[in-house]
Batch of 3 targets.
Target 1
Amino acid sequence: GFALSGGCLRTSTAWTEALPRVGVNDVVLYNIFAKGYEVNDFVDALSHLINGANGKVNVMLTLDSAPYSEMTLEKRDTLEPKYHAACAYINRFAPDDYTDYYGMIIRLINALSAKGLLQYISWQLWQEPDSDKYFHGNINQFKVITTVKFDAVVTTNYPIYIGDFTSRKLKQEYRDYVATDAVFNRPYVHYSTSLYPEVKNALTDYNA
């Protein structure tokens, strides 16, 4: 398997040409809503990757960012300085408008469907949201944004993965939410631990 930023597909054809040649069958894509990236451009690049592999590839799309909006200094300065640089191209705060965010995911789904790509897709709702590096919000915002994501991707009838938490067991309230909320206790919702074995034990211990 291989994980990379969705932007790599849009800025260079090297990835879409190289991955099939080296026999990569499982690809995880992050940052698919980064600054300047249009949904149709991303789907075109993804189509090139999948078709280049003759359809012999599985793609997990991680909804780990909100639509990009210009970051105010006031908003950026709520973060530790080491995270400031990323604010120039990715929005890991909660969306400014949840309805718009839902609509953006639906537009992505429709574009994938129009290209005949949904059969290759699974969804990951987040990646390590209990780390300030990957989610710049609070637990209440996290609950709303997760529900919005779920409500959008569940319409595709394709696998949904919860995503992993950090192996350091940060922010227990995030794990409590996932362990107790009914939306996650469904047969087609899975943990992503097979993709990230380094956190498997931490999640297994918690959910025992």
Target 2
Amino acid sequence: KLVIATTLVATTVGGTLIGVNNLTKKEGEPIRKTAIVQTEDKKIEINYKEIILEELVTTKQIIVATNKMKVPFTHTVKHFIGERSQDVEFSIVGRFIVDLDKLNSEDILIDDNSKTVTIYMTKPTKDVSLLEDETKFSEIQKSWFLFNKDIEYSLEQVEDIKHQVKCDALTLMIDLEEQAKESARQSIEGIIRMVTNNNYTINIRWVS
């Protein structure tokens, strides 16, 4: 399954928010499950822990925000009599992602007396993808006494440039980390409420 968060995350500087949708599941409307167990003193109780774990693990991943950014880069080639340079504008899509498939029962604590569910989660991670078809190149600038105006890019240089602009994009996303965690929290709470029928207070604890 793939879940898209319900909360919008604001754009980074130089970026435009391009895709955050409502919380959905591939199968359509979720089916609420219950696990009825009998305790030693013959009381009937509902055990939510394994149900919550199953719902989260089978969801696998939550994309809490998708953000399109423009990242500039200047490539300069120096010669002993001058230099050539070219400005390049890269389009990059950044995402904050929460992975749920590594959760285990020890990460979920349920207190039936206080009606609380506490889940220990790894904080959202950043991921970026380069939209190579949208790369824009400026006119090449050169010292006036250099006759050949072309700049040749080696395969190694291209890969180094791609790596650098992806690192720059990840840096631009840092300011959104707290908003991404809040968006993820609301999405996870929504999944749990569908299981507990909204009868429990939900606490999300972020761990490194």
Target 3
Amino acid sequence: VKDMDFKTTDNIQDIYPEEIVANRPFFLHEREQSEQGVTKVPFFSSPPKPQNAPQQNAVQQKKPWKGNVDAGLTIQKGNKEALKKNKKTDFSWERTKDNVYFNSLILFETKDGEKNADEQWGTLKYERKHLEKLYSFYQESTEHDEIEKLSLRSITSSGVGYRFIEREKLKYKSEIGPSFTYERFRNDIHQTSPGLRIGSVLDWQILPS
């Protein structure tokens, strides 16, 4: 038995005897392709892609958080002088099981050199979803007002809410639950009072984003 090395440059007649090549149609076909300079190259096909494979960047997923910061400055000169500064923040983080909201406001205003507004407040709220539209919430609000000589006002509330309308551009919900208010003024006066919180929230996007 003779060991033979196969190369792409070998001819059929160099490997097998001439009488075998002449009597086999397969070898004749291979010889014709070899004489015409045709070389077979192995072909490896890639595995088929699944029909339901998601296309990259086909649909952009909605971000779970959003927020905005608004700031303004108004100066009036002439017979009446006025100055108004404000800064408002609004952030939300909406997930499958719960939501987190935060908003704040800083306001300062003077008219004819007299200060008539100087306040800051902020609210942090957490919502826990129990059913598709039913949820519970916990909210903490704080406020400081120099005009009212209010050093601190803290309102703590919790309860349940229901989402009557939940669409992309229109949302409406109502809430109810107990609340507790603590106030401290600059003249060392403290006040506390329990209460009942009833509220509704309407979010309607009129202009396109």
